[in-house]
Amino acid sequence: MLNPKKYIFGVTSGKFLGYLVSRRDIEANPDKVRAIQEISPPRYIRDVQRLTGRLAALNRFLSQSASKILPFFKVLKKADSFSWTGECQQAFEQLKRYLHHLPTLTLPRPGDKLFLYLSAAAEAVSVVLIREEGAIELGEYDLSYEPRTAIKAQALADFLAELTFDEANKSTSAKTSATAEPQRWILHVDGSSNSEGSGAGLLLEDPQGEVCSYALRFDFAASNNEAEYEAVIAGLQLARKLGAGHILVYSDSQLVVCQILGEYEAREEVMHRYLSKVHQLVAHFESFEIQKIPRSQNKRADALSRLASTSFSDLNRSVLVEVLAEPGYIEEVVCPVYLGDTWMGPLIRFLSRRELPDDRAESRKLQRKAARYALRQNLLYKRSYLGPWLRCITPEKGQRVLQDIHDGLCGAHVGHRMLVKKALLLGYFWPTMRVDAQILVLSCPACQHHAPEHHQPTNLMIPITLPWPFEQWGTDIIGPFSRAPGNFAYVVVAIDYFTKWVEAEPLRSITGAAIQKFFWKSVVCRFGLPRVVISDNGK
């Protein structure tokens, strides 16, 4: 007999696996919701753990649960000292109010239009699929429902209104104030020259306050003023590479500052070249300003320049040191060499001028391919999966990169797979890098001489039955001969492939029964059933 308390039939809704399930939708369990609403503010860590455990049971019905429960997890991190802050109490009260209006989960039907809503917060990203219930509810009354045309715009407005955080407002106001005032980079430079050598030091500070220390060592003779100019040129070049648009330079050299500002005249040829180089670099910035400061306010740059001019041993490892072999005003002589169009040509033309090939299929292929590339300062870069952008180079330059990695100063003669990985980690890419690396390793004499011997066969091994005695037989029929006594005119022969053992028997005529009798008596009964029998059917 069934227990009526355990078995219920014909019901339209009920509790199943902790949820209130009906034919139309799935709702949160009212008992679990009531258990959270009736709980008092936690006083111990165990109370917070009990609260988060109950909220986890309703996680599917909580919108932006990570943002709502984050204050409670911050309390759990500080297990040594329990502190129920005002932020936790406010989140606790908001959560209780939210539990009065929980959403329901429905089963999507074929043909329903689903709307995807994304919620991106500082803590997590939430996503939910929503379908409209208006047409479904009015369908049973033979009424049609048509949503308004501005539903997408209204949903976007509601989405933005709901996700307006204080942090976002602060960042927006900060960005607005930053756009009003240009983000200026600050550069401190100083040069030093003595009997032991000459050097320069510079400190570059970005708008966020991060400082980069840089030291220069000169392998050529330079005076104190020339060292000051070298520091300014190196600092401007570094700021330009880092993308600075507005820069303020501080220097304690009155001569250099006044010559750049045009207050002093550069009479010497060397000073005039340095000044021209500075003016060329200044043209790349949106705003440039240089000021003279006392040496007491430029101590860090002065210390770097003095240490760079004496020895490297006293410099901190975090300081970048560069050795210049020639003065900065000497222009590089570039001889253009045109090697024809490379694999980067179509990509560069499309990204710079939106130029496409005439072939329609090639045009589509190029557009899909260009989505993974970017053009920065006339240089092509490829997007990597998890690392930084990769500099695109020609196969000829790639050969030199692989050669340097493989057997250069720090080369370890690694395999072709590791060689490609090292080239990618260094930030280079070209399409044939894997094939080029394999060819380079195979053509390296040292790698071939010291490589381990491979005893594995080049092809897959195929088992054969030839070395097994009496496992493979060959049969044939000889004749006809002139009739012998007993009216025999044919001979049937069976030969073992391994031992060359021969079995033969004369026949009066060639019939299937005679061949079967011979094979059964002379081969199977004496040597066992063979695995392979080879015959040409008497032809």
Give a short overview.
This protein has 539 residues and is of the alpha/beta class. Helix content is 38%, strand content 20%. The longest helix has 18 residues, at 224-241.
Explain the overall architecture.
It is a single chain. With 539 residues, the protein is of the alpha/beta class. The chain has 5 domains: 14-167, no CATH class; 184-324, Nucleotidyltransferase, domain 5 (2-Layer Sandwich); 336-377, no CATH class; 393-452; 472-535, Ribonuclease H-like superfamily/Ribonuclease H (Nucleotidyltransferase, domain 5, 2-Layer Sandwich), CATH 3.30.420.10. The protein contains 18 helices and 20 strands. The chain has a 6-stranded mixed sheet with strand order 11-10-7-8-9-12. Strands 1-2-3-4 form a 4-stranded antiparallel sheet. Helix 3 (65-77) packs antiparallel against helix 4 (86-98), helix 14 (395-407) packs across helix 15 (416-425) and helix 14 packs across helix 16 (433-442). Residues 134-145, 165-170 and 172-179 have low confidence and may be disordered.
Write the layout of secondary structure elements.
Blueprint: E1 13-16, E2 19-22, E3 25-28, H1 30-37, H2 45-57, H3 65-77, H4 86-98, E4 105-106, E5 114-120, E6 125-131, H5 134-139, H6 151-162, H7 166-180, E7 184-194, E8 197-205, E9 211-218, H8 224-241, E10 246-251, H9 254-261, H10 269-282, E11 287-292, H11 299-310, E12 320-324, H12 345-353, H13 360-370, E13 373-376, E14 379-382, E15 390-392, H14 395-407, H15 416-425, E16 428-429, H16 433-442, H17 445-450, E17 472-478, E18 490-496, E19 502-507, H18 512-527, E20 532-535
Parallel strand pairs: 7-10, 9-12, 10-11, 15-16, 17-20
Antiparallel strand pairs: 1-2, 2-3, 3-4, 5-6, 7-8, 8-9, 13-14, 14-15, 17-18, 18-19
